[in-house]
Amino acid sequence: MALVEVQVPDIGDFDEVGVIEVLVKVGDTVKVEQSLITVESDKASMEIPSSQAGVVKEIKVAVGDKVKQGSVVVVVEAEGAAAAAPAPAAAAPAPAPGAAAPAPVAAPAAAPAAAGGSVTVVVPDIGDFDEVAVIEVLVKVGDTVKVEQSLITVESDKASMEIPSSTAGVVEELLVKLGDKVAKGTALARVKTVGGAAAPAPALAAAAPAAAAPAPAAAAPVQAAVSAAPAVALPAHQPTAPTGQLPHASPSIRKLARELGVPLAEVKGSGAKGRIVEADIQGFVKAVMAGAVQTAAQKAVAPAAAAGGGSGLNVLAWPKVDFDKFGPTERKELSRIKKISGANLHRNWVVIPHVTNHDDADITELEAFRVQLNKENEKAGIKVTMLAFMIKAAVAALKKFPEFNSSLDGDTLVLKNYFHIGFAADTPNGLVVPVIKDADKKGIFQISAEMSELAKKARDGKLGPADMSGGCFSISSLGGIGGKYFTPIINAPEVAIMGVCKSSIEPVWDGKAFQPRLILPLSLSWDHRVIDGAAAARFNVYFASLLADFRRIAL
Ligand code: CAO
């Protein structure tokens, strides 16, 4: 197998250019025309292709090295028949057509103009490139331009360069637009010369800088996803380039950015001299998708959303406070349950349009019955609490108002013909919602027994996914603790939840006098996409009436 030195071809007028990226490593198999390194001057960036197919045996350059025509880039073990081929001429291996080594951008031939007249600026000799695409138009009609000021950026698949003006003056007419293909001699713009005379064309304008131009107009905004905060730290992404200047990036990175709609000017480059590398683009996209970063375009949309534009949440960044400034603190990681339930609660709160109806149930007789039941069944060891009755009442109310026993699936409502009722259980590690399956088929004692078993499992951290899935409707009871009313958060994909607080004796007018009655505060939260306020009020009234007279449940 022959070893072949791959050298930097004729790169035009550039004496020495810096290596800013090495795109291959030892052991890589490369094809002819595959880019090996990226070089950059202050005027252009270009990728140097391999003139030889084979396996990279040695890399002779490193980032930061200066190279010129003839510098050895890599040593390749030539593959197959090519192995016997002699190494390309050391001096100047011909660059693959349209691949690398743009010739210097020679002085554009400015058509001579009469004093005070106009000059048509044309594309100068751009070397080996037959036709290249205009990827940026850097000036607009009315702009005053100087000699050598960049007018457009063109790009092939291997290099990008800016085409400068050969004359100073005011842009009267632009003769190209984004996406046009241009070649040597293509008219770019008509420029009205300054001071009434055409400026002399510079003898030789070098390739214009690839790093000094406004952000690409073609960059489309990346759509934001409303999602939970990322689990991993994401890099901060402030633009590194001064406003109005395009950050350093190789043509392939620019292409990648355009394909993904990433605004390069907003990406922080982590390469040498703030150069943007592929990992920066990836990090930027991840940060935007995670909601950690907004593009300028998204920020512009956000106020519109706030004003009724209909997209984005437009919330302020979370306040960053140095709490230790105000007093001693300690840090405690959220429990696993809190992290999981927190993310679910957040989603449900943000996504579901909640409304909460408050009502009262007179449970005077039911409480007396419950106490009596517990006395009678003391020996059985099953304690009945008000929650068991509420689970039965919930089943009856769901039967009467079926839309409360449903879930949204896009624009379709899935109505359930089963009755699994969840109950919120407070545990040392956080909130969980075990589910009593087929509560319609179970009596008060069986429900009480299952509840106490599930509550114990919850406290011991032993609930499995099956214990917590399939719920139709949930009850969150704070009755053993206290409080009056609250707003329970719907346990998606359910569409309603009943919150219950501590019952207390209250004076109730019976038409003749105030009577002391045991009143249970109810708070029903419901999804306004599925349920209307009138239905919610009826549900509460019916639920309360069942608790007030439990015989009605049999009707
Ligand atoms: N009014 C007055 N007293 C009530 C009551 C009510 N609405 N509900 C229960 N009680 C009483 C019980 O009768 C019991 O009294 P005794 O000890 O005298 O018998 C006492 O309060 C404790 O009841 P309990 O809480 O053990 O039993 P429960 O069946 O009512 O509730 C469970 C079980 C697991 C749901 C409950 O322990 C729990 O974890 N509740 C918290 C739910 C929660 O955190 N919700 C908030 C979710 S949103 O963050």
Give your account of this protein's structure.
By secondary structure, this protein is α+β, with helices and mostly antiparallel strands. Helix content is 20%, strand content 25%. The chain is built from eight helices and 27 strands. Strands 7-2-4-5-13-12-10-15 form an eight-stranded antiparallel beta sheet, with no helix packed on it. Strands 17, 20, 23, 24, 25, 26 and 27 form a seven-stranded mixed beta sheet that branches. Strands 1-8-6-3 form a four-stranded antiparallel beta sheet, with no helix packed on it. β21 and β22 form a beta hairpin. α6 crosses α7 and α6 crosses α8. The site of oxidized coenzyme A has 19 residues, from α6, β21 and β24. Its EC number is 2.3.1.12. It is an enzyme of class 2 (transferase). Keywords: Acyltransferase, Transferase.
Short account of what is shown:
The chain has 555 residues and is of the alpha+beta class. It has 8 helices and 27 strands. The longest helix is centred in the middle third of the chain and has 16 residues, at 336-351.
Topology:
Layout: E1 3-7, E2 17-22, E3 29-30, E4 35-40, E5 44-49, E6 54-59, E7 66-67, E8 72-78, E9 118-122, E10 132-137, E11 144-145, E12 150-155, E13 159-164, E14 169-174, E15 181-182, E16 187-193, H1 251-260, H2 278-289, H3 296-309, H4 336-351, E17 354-362, H5 364-376, H6 386-400, E18 406-409, E19 412-415, E20 421-423, E21 425-427, E22 430-432, E23 435-436, H7 444-459, E24 473-477, E25 496-500, E26 504-509, E27 514-527, H8 533-548
Parallel strand pairs: 20-24, 24-25
Antiparallel strand pairs: 1-8, 2-4, 2-7, 3-6, 4-5, 5-13, 6-8, 9-16, 10-12, 10-15, 11-14, 12-13, 14-16, 17-27, 18-19, 20-23, 21-22, 25-27, 26-27
